[in-house]
């Protein structure tokens, strides 16, 4: 059972009627296992994809051609590899690279905030060298 709760001074309080209904199924004295995750802020997710769009739109032509980055998805795959979010395996004498997921179900808000920040660092270091971090963040805010 998954329920959404708000943290208050007196403890965790179910946020919605359906969550309260699920909580009422528990009995006093029941032992339960709780996993705490901060759900992803969808607006922050949109901000990340605005960062990707803005970066692709401003990629130097040479980097775009050398790295074959023409879409947001291309850049996202490159960033996942740059940031170590991938696995490799060998198949038929070839190395296969599989990038990890940044879906709402796979990363909570805290993990995604770290991924966003590390992505900005990688973009400034590899793709848009010489760009000011604060200027990039402000531009992303206006680009959404």
Written account of the structure:
- Helices cover about 50% and strands about 15% of the residues.
- The protein is of the alpha+beta class and about 140 residues long.
- The strands form 2 sheets. A two-stranded antiparallel sheet has the order 1-2.
- A hairpin with a 2-residue loop joins strand 3 (about 85-90) and strand 4 (about 95-100).
- Helix 2 (about 40-60) packs across helix 4 and helix 2 (about 40-60) runs parallel beside helix 5.
- The longest helix has 19 residues, at about 110-125.
- It is elongated.
- The mean pLDDT is about 90.
Number of strands: 4
The fraction of residues assigned to DSSP E strands is 5-15%
> Strand sequence of the main sheet, in spatial order?
1-2
- Termini distance? 35 Å
Number of helices, where a helix is a run of at least 4 consecutive DSSP H or I residues: 6
Biggest β-sheet description: 2 strands, antiparallel
Helix content: 40-55%
Helix/strand class: alpha+beta
Radius of gyration: 20 Å
Q: What's the overall geometry?
A: elongated
Order of helices and strands: EEHHHHEEHH
Low-confidence stretches: none
Mean pLDDT: 89
In short:
This protein has 144 residues and is α+β, with helices and mostly antiparallel strands. The chain has helices at 17-24, 42-58, 61-67, 72-82, 109-127, 133-143; strands at residues 5-8, 11-14, 86-91, 94-99. The strands form 2 sheets. It has a two-stranded antiparallel sheet.
Tell me the layout of helices and strands.
Blueprint: E1 5-8, E2 11-14, H1 17-24, H2 42-58, H3 61-67, H4 72-82, E3 86-91, E4 94-99, H5 109-127, H6 133-143
Antiparallel strand pairs: 1-2, 3-4
Helix pairs in contact: 2-4, 2-5, 2-6
